[in-house]
């Protein structure tokens, strides 16, 4: 297959994926949290090695960039776990949405700043989850005001997991288009 006169097969660089959680794992909590961490790491692996210019470049018709996706996922962690489940005050839970309602990274924010925010949001999520049971309901006063159904921690974690799985797939395609890297 060719793209722009270049044999795409020659451009593909396979990457050996890290292991998923053990196949013998049967505890639902450990399995769910293991896959969340697997996908959190996958996002960072997909971005590893891209220079800042490429992190800020879109190769898709929708226009989002890899750095915008990483910023979005940092906010997903915060919206669903810190602000959502724990009802912690959050200055800008929708801070990844730009004026055109697309993902954005604020001007002057470096890739390292976005990565640090992402890893901090993931660390805070892990702390929140460690102190709760899967059947605990989200606290009211943050994202959930009590006027409607309040989700359980299990529901929130599965929602966040599916969000990661979808976006890692987006990054698979984006990275292959950018430099031919494929793999987990």
From TrEMBL:
Where do the record's region annotations for Disordered lie?
1-26
InterPro entries recorded for this chain?
DinB/YfiT-like, MST-like
Q: Which Pfam families match?
A: MST (PF04978)
Read off the SUPFAM superfamilies from this record. DinB/YfiT-like putative metalloenzymes (SSF109854)
What name has this protein been given in UniProt?
A: DinB family protein
């Amino acid at each position: 297959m060719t793209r722009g006169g270049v044999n795409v097969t020659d451009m593909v660089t396979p990457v050996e994926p890290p292991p998923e959680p053990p196949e013998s794992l049967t505890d639902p909590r450990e399995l769910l949290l293991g896959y969340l961490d697997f996908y959190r790491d996958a996002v960072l692996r997909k971005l590893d090695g891209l220079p800042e210019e490429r992190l800020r470049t879109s190769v898709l018709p929708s226009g989002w960039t890899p750095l915008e996706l990483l910023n979005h996922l940092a906010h997903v962690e915060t919206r669903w776990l810190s602000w959502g489940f724990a009802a912690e005050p959050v200055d800008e839970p929708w801070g990844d949405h730009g004026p055109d309602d697309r993902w954005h990274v604020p001007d002057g924010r470096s890739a390292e700043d976005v990565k640090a925010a992402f890893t901090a949001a993931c660390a805070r999520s892990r702390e929140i989850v460690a102190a709760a049971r899967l059947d605990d309901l989200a606290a009211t006063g943050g994202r959930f005001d009590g006027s409607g159904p309040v989700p359980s921690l299990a529901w929130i974690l599965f929602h966040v997991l599916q969000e990661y799985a979808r976006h890692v797939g987006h990054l698979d395609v984006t990275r292959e288009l950018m430099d031919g890297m494929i793999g987990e």
